[in-house]
Amino acid sequence: MTLRHYARLISFKAWADLRAERERTYLGLLWWVLEPAMFMFVFYFVFGVLRGNRGPDFIAFLLVGVVSWQWIQAGVSHCGDRVLNNLPLVSQVRLSPAVFPLVVLLSDTIKFSVVLILLVVVLWLLGYVPGKWFLVLPILLVVQLILIAGSGLIYSALVPIIPDLRYVAGAVLRAVMFVSGIFFDIDRMDPAHAKLLSLNPVAGLIADARLILLHNQSPQWGRLGLAALSGLLLLAVATLLFRRFGPSYTKLPC
Question: What gap in Å lies between CA 67 and CA 75, rounded to an integer?
Answer without folding.
Answer: 12
